Each structure stands twice: as structure tokens, then as C-alpha cells.
Amino acid sequence: MTAVLVSEVGPRDGLQSISRTMPLEAKKAWIRAEAEAGVREIEVGSFVPPALLPQMADTAELVAFARTVPGLAVAVLVPNLKGAERGIAAGAHKMSIPFSMSETHSIRNVRKDHPAMVAEIRAIADRVRQEPAETRPHFEVGLATAFGCTIEGPVEEEQVVRLAEAAIEAGAAEVGLSDTTGYANPAQVKRLVRKVKAAVGPKRLNTLHLHNTRGLGLANALAGLEEGITTLDSSLGGLGGCPAAPGASGNIVTEDLAFMLAAMGIETGIDLPKLLAVRAILEEALPGEPLYGFTPDAGLPLGFGGRA
Amino acid sequence: MTAVLVSEVGPRDGLQSISRTMPLEAKKAWIRAEAEAGVREIEVGSFVPPALLPQMADTAELVAFARTVPGLAVAVLVPNLKGAERGIAAGAHKMSIPFSMSETHSIRNVRKDHPAMVAEIRAIADRVRQEPAETRPHFEVGLATAFGCTIEGPVEEEQVVRLAEAAIEAGAAEVGLSDTTGYANPAQVKRLVRKVKAAVGPKRLNTLHLHNTRGLGLANALAGLEEGITTLDSSLGGLGGCPAAPGASGNIVTEDLAFMLAAMGIETGIDLPKLLAVRAILEEALPGEPLYGFTPDAGLPLGFGGRA
Fold it and tell me: Which of A41, A140, B33, B183 is the most buried (most CB within 10 A)?
């Protein structure tokens, strides 16, 4: 393991989880500063109906802006074919659709059972293929609630494997495993990554999307790295922690993840002092919003950088 | 890996790091409740001069009390031979002496260079051997600042290996690796555990003492488990975080560690709901003191226990 892609999802997963709407200019400043700190991929928003998530209403403008940032891969979340049409029109480089492994969760959240979701994935994949190869977005399926569901409880691993195969068969370029609920543990991460890679092929599963709900986020990330995961989603300041559970952070924290990878000698392209400075943008734009992470408070170890 | 010993160090490392003194009765209630929750080893205090650490002045009384708790291994920290004499007199089952791998840190903290520390370890080991075998305490050397020092910065791994060998040669039963400063990363943990085990023998290094200063505590614990570590120190509520760095927790959090191990199917003997309930004793005895950990806020996953 010599290089890992840290994919910042804060502007999407973080901001959609809090009730306030960050002003467009602050979002742009955040994206620009984090890209300048060396983050190479940012999920800037989602193409959901603005009536449902007003925080994400400016996603098309953000995609247009982010495409002007040199070297940045611009990702968006799309809930369905309609969202994908908007993503393609906006010019996103990468589109992900969440596909909940818990059918109850899927029906509750997007009113679609598993066969309906596979049909939607197929429709998006077909639509994406109509784009010219040079501008065609990369289309990924995020296997949500893959490690357990807050409604159903445990989710069968064989079900995750079967639905991952169905997503690839329907035309997705790759699948990712999402611990939407913060239920995952390192042994489970290793087992499930291994099983899904075996089923869909090792190149078709590269990404883990982890939450730090029970404090195991970085341990789960480490387990994934050991099984060949090369992309880790994370959120600056762990933005988006559950307000109902104070202290229960949202996504794994970009600052701590980037520190761990750098300390381990894994290349990410990220300049740590610059990354830590980006946090000030969040603090200013969202005063009083809880932010998470330990490295920002503790600072880098003495002599860090000289040697890991 | 089927079983791990979680060694609670909060009554020592947590309480010595905060300025308030927890009343003796609250300490007893904490120790009793945590033992009843299934924790099998607790470091109840340290035999340092009460003038230096008044929070630890009642350690002898706590050892006497803890020895009455069924099945509990009673550990103490001793800084020198004089402390060890007090530990033996009190009837501790296990005594650890911190031995700082950074000589500057050692001189600054205990006014002893490395040769003086090895002489002290030898004097304690000789004294311990005079005790009858059936009551002789287990004597361990904690290799402090093994992953880096806040004064010296990086610490040479070969120096840690050499000093670990010296500690064993001087008569310690085993050594443990301590990330006193929260500098460790998983790659370094694996490397150093492997090197020290190779030098002193695999049975002579079983323990990791980790801090969560930069959020990597459980990832480091996982790395240690993968290299055959079988004892992990931790502190309930991560008590003892650095007040100068808010958010920078102290020891790894017992609650999150116990959840991780249980979720991975590793036996610890701990009843998680009972353990989570012990936190109320800290909250009541130390009102307003920052406590850490995510599992206590998030709760256990739905269906947890039925299946991991």
C-alpha cells in the first residue's frame, strides 16, 4: 500500500446532515482550500429535489465551480435517474447512487425495493453510456447499510454480495461499501471486502465509506487498507454527527485520516498543515456547529515530517 | 485471536492527569462496578510521593479494597524501588514501572538517565524475587515514549529494542509498549511490536498502552492485536485528556475498545451494557470533567449480541 485517495464528502454528507445551509461562497472557499491542500476528490453535493434537501440546492453551481479547480475530481450523489440527468448536465466527473442493502431501509428512504433499485441503476448506467467516452462520468454504486441497519439490525453478508453482483451486472463501473450506520467492526470490514471483491472482481471494489459513530472509524479504515481498499471517504471535522447522540461523530474525520495515512508512509498528496487550516472555514461559516477530530486539537507530533 | 485482557488504567492514569482528587469511596465504587461488569484487571493507583500526586495518596487503601473483589487482578504503578516496597507491602498483584525510551524525558521526569533506570529496575526485580512465589507480584516494565517524545521527537526503534532487552535482562517479567504521547501509528505499532518480540521473546511483550491523542488509538490497538498483543490498557471515559488540547483524549476509551473487541468476536469477559452504566459513577464523582468515547452516546447497534 503506497498511495490512497482521500475522497472528501463533507460538502455532501456533512452538510446534508445538519439543518443549516452553508452559503454558496463558503462552500466554494472550502472546496478550493481543501483542493489546494492536496485533496484530489471532493463530493460537492447531491442532486436530490431541493424541496427535500435545501442545503443541496446549489449543487449544479458547485459542480461548475469545482470543475475549474485544477486537478480536482468532482463527485456528486444522485438518488435516481432524474438526479443522474442533472449530474450529467452539470458535468460531474463521478456519480454515486446509494443502494441500501437493507430492503426495509431502501423502501423507507427512497420508496424502492431491491428490484426497483437495480432497475434504476441499470437505467442510469444505460444513460451514462450514451455520453461520449471523453466526458462520460464514472458511475459507482454505494452499498449503503452494508454493515447493519438501524431498522433491520444485522444485514446478511451473502445478501450484500448478491446485490453487489447485481449492481455490477446492471452496468455500474464499481461498487463501494458504506457503513451508513456506524455499525462496522474491523473483522467484518475485512470479511465483507474480501467476499465482495471475490464476487465482483478486485478492481470493482475500491472504496469504503465509514462513519465514526462508535469510535471505530479509523480502525475500520485500517482493516480496509489491509484488504486492498484504495479510496476512503471522509469529512472535514467529521461534520454531520448525529445531533441526537452528542459526541457520536458522522463520517470519519479527514484530518485524523490524513494524519494516520501520512504517519504510515502512505501517499495521499495532502499537505497536513494546510489541511488543518481549512477547518477555520467551517468554524467561520457554521459557528457553533460541533466539529470532531483529535489531530486538529493535538497538532502534529514534534519532528513529524522529518520522519514518520 | 480469541481472547484479550482489557486492563483498566483510569483510576491511575486518568485520575493522576486531572487536578481534582476523586474521593476514596467513589474510586471504590468505580473499581467494584467495573469488576462486576467483567473487567479482570484494574490499575488502581500509583505509589508516588503523595506530595507530588495527592490524587494517588490512597493507593494502599485501594489495593487492600481491590484485593477483596473476586477474580480481580490488582495492578499499581511504581516509579522506583521505594514505590515497589510500598506496592509489595500493600499486596498488589502486579507492579509496573515506567521506563522512558527518551532519555531526555526520563531525566526531566524522574531525574534518572537510562543506566540509572536499568539499575532501579534490577533493584526492584531483585526485591520482588525475595517474596514467596505464591504472593510475589508480577513485575512489568512499561516502555514509555516508545513511539516518540514531546521533547526529543522521534525515538529510534533500535533504542527501544535495546532498552527492552536491558529491562528483561535486569529481571523484569515482561515489557509493555507505551504510546505516552499519542504519536503512534498502526504501521509503527506493527513494526515495533515485531522487533521487540523478536528481541525479548514473544511471551515477554503482551501489553500495549495507547493514547487517543490524535484519534488513532483503536487503529493502533487493532495493529497490535494483529501482531499478537493480548493485553490492552484503556481508561473508562478516556479520562485524563489533556486540558491544554480540548478534544485530545487521554488513554483509549474502555467503552469503545470493549465494543470493538466484542463486535470482532474477541472474548474479554466484559458485559457491555453493564460497562456503559459504570460511566455514571465518573459523571457523578467528577461533575463537568470531560469524558470521551463514542459508543456511550451512540449505544449498541440494533440486534447486537444476537450476532456481531
Answer: B183
